[in-house]
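Q: what sequence does this backbone want?
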């Protein structure tokens, strides 16, 4: 249940995303961010706020653990829209978290996949993939490489 405890604290984030999330031939753009995460409900909830200073927007992620299902639901909200996006749900296995759900992008139905991996005390990696064919194939369209800014509180 405490799968997201690693995220507690402040992180510098190196972002890399495709200029077109649905086009495998589109170029990549890099930009920084700052993320601050907190732990709630004895580890069954996690919350973070991320600021993208060169992009002029910010977002929030709420993660909730469902003990009955043994899985997490992750909800993203953007300052640009002021709404919660549909959740992705999943779990960690052998140190890697995979979360999937239905969404839309540029007016098209997509299946979204978030992957948390390479988790260490002072670094972690998040990846976002979209599928236009119900998960038969996946396009990596956004990565975040996180580096801890401050020591993790005990």
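A:
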């Amino acid at each position: 249940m405490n799968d997201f405890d690693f995220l507690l604290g402040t992180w510098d984030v190196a972002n890399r995303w495709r200029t077109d999330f649905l086009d495998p031939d589109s170029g990549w753009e890099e930009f920084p961010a700052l993320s601050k995460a907190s732990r709630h409900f004895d580890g069954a909830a996690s919350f973070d706020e991320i600021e993208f200073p060169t992009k002029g927007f910010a977002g929030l992620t709420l993660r909730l653990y469902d003990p009955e299902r043994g899985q997490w639901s992750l909800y993203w909200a953007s300052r640009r829209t002021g709404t919660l996006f549909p959740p992705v749900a999943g779990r960690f296995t052998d140190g890697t978290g995979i979360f999937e759900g239905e969404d839309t992008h540029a007016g098209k139905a997509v299946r979204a996949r978030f992957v948390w991996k390479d988790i260490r005390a002072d670094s972690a990696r998040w990846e976002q993939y979209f599928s236009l064919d119900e998960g038969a194939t996946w396009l990596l369209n956004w990565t975040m490489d996180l580096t801890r800014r401050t020591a993790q509180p005990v």
